[in-house]
Amino acid sequence: MKHPxxxxxxxTSPILHLVSxxxxxxxxxxxxxxxxxxxxxxxxxxxxTIHASLAIENNSLSLEQVTAVVSGRRVLGPPExxxxxxxxxxxxxxxxxxxxxxxxxxxxAHRLLMQGLINGAGQFRSSGVGIAKGKHIVHIAPPAxxxxxxxxxxxxxxxxxxxxxxxxxxxxHYELEFIHPFSDGNGRIGRLWQTLILSRWNPLxxxxxxxxxxxxxxxxxxxxxxxxxxxxNSTPFIEFLLSALLAALRETQPxxxxxxxxxxxxxxxxxxxxxxxxxxxxxxxxxxLSHRPTFRRNYLDPALAxxxxxxxxxxxxxxxxxxxxxxxxxxx
Length: 332
Known about the structure:
By secondary structure, this protein is mostly helical. The chain has helices at about 15-35, 40-55, 65-70, 80-95, 105-115, 145-160, 165-180, 185-200, 210-215, 220-230, 235-250, 265-275, 280-285, 290-305; strands spanning about 130-135, 135-140, 310, 325.
């Protein structure tokens, strides 16, 4: 069988440096703590992944609400957004049963992600599609008639490529977004499939919440996708995603610093709160922290995911009056 041609991209010095740094970071972690993660950290990271991936698609549920949905608790929120969370959790949980290069598995994953949300879940689109930003069309996807052929070609390349998985996963992610094979859900299936590809290289990466970093750099994510369309290759997108992956690795706590319940940072947060009810700014001041994204990722989000603290305005996570208190504390 003739191997398919490579999708267009270049191996740059920044890409080589990032691959080296990511590999070294994983190696240090495995040498220090072993390859495994505690069940609590796996669950916390998986919830952060689902919350961030859906937030990129304008799902308004907070991490606390996502955690409640996955735990089977009742949540007040838009029914469609609750359904999105249930679908995403089912898809990520099913990941171990799929092969990245198998088309039927890709379609099964899309069906799980989008069932009950769109017509044609688990099927390639049958009509043309364009991606708009405001009033401007920023991308016209290939004609629907070409989608099956393009996806067969891309999946065959993925199966046979000798590119490092860190690189091939980014290339696949970009090419899938370019082809836009589904009527909806292309972004979330692209991020899920990159996680699947990476997990086959190193199981640790199945639980890494890269989507949280992408969400924080969301404007760059879309801008770089558009830039790659203009230049006709995925090189800038590879550099962007590898930098996000490295950032996620460095922000996620090593195994030996995590118990089955909370990290050291969460313990510090709980001690800081005591019986008080404080805003995020007040907590950061007490902790001596100034970088809000780091505070959210390492302290606030894990505490919310573990159901150890609660918002005073749970139905409006972005309220300017939002404060937090320990769930074990007594509040009126």
